[in-house]
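The pair is quoted verbatim below.
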Amino acid sequence: MSLKKIWNKITNNQKYQEFKYLKQKEKNIKLFKNKFEEEINQINKKINKQHKLNFLHSGHAADIINILPVIKKLSKDHECNLFINLDKPIKFYYKHPAGNLFINKKIYEMLLPLLKNQKYLNQIDIYNNNDIDINFDLLRSLPINLLFDNLTYASVITGIQPDLGEPYISAGNHEKLKKKIIIQRSFRYRNQFISYDFLNNYDDLYFVGTQDEFNDLKKIVNKLNFYNCRDFLDMANIVNSSKFVLANSSLTFPIAEGLQVPRLLESCPDFPAAQPHGKNSFNFYFQSHFEEKFRYLNSL
């Protein structure tokens, strides 16, 4: 720490805070100019000049779903190939189904049928040193705050801005689960200000997350039923057949967004990156709003 910085911190906190703010700005500008600006510019050139685009993503599964609206828009005049990089380590994620990895082989294999059902994806494969035109992992390295709408992350990298109120996932119907209330609640991204106990007043509640997540919510919601999805296309078919979806920021809500079915998002006060888009798509932070929006969607 410089002597000037130490002196300002001791004698004038306002100047010290201003000094820190300006220094951080300078640092971010330098980092972007030296490390990232040329790559962003090259991505823009490739979109404008190439007919074929190879995309890279290292997970999470929900983040991969969230890049699809941009890829779908690009597919109108590009051949789009998506490569998934497996087993990239993550520093910490509370009770992640893939442990300390963004995405592992098991989750990839569950995601693959859903991705293959999207006709605008020409090829989906595991990354193996393929030539990549657009690396969506770049977002996690950029000197920007990620506390904004995570469905627009791909737009930040590409400059492509699709209509997020339009469907960008294709799925079928589910014969056994029709017009049910579909629920997922992961252990991460929960809202500590609300409770699910009022759901005991409702029927036809089906949980589609992991067994551990179900067991946890079952302690509160006695009427909750469990459905073990064989893969994420099976989950999408259930979501597509649902009355509406209730979920926090995990895989089921992005699928519901992509299908544009009625949906309700449990917003996380600690990391409010997920946002609803389109018709009959709502979020909540507090109990009265939770119950009000749930009643409304149940009345449709």
In short: The chain has a mean pLDDT of 94. The first helix runs from residue 3 to 11. The longest strand covers residues 52-57.
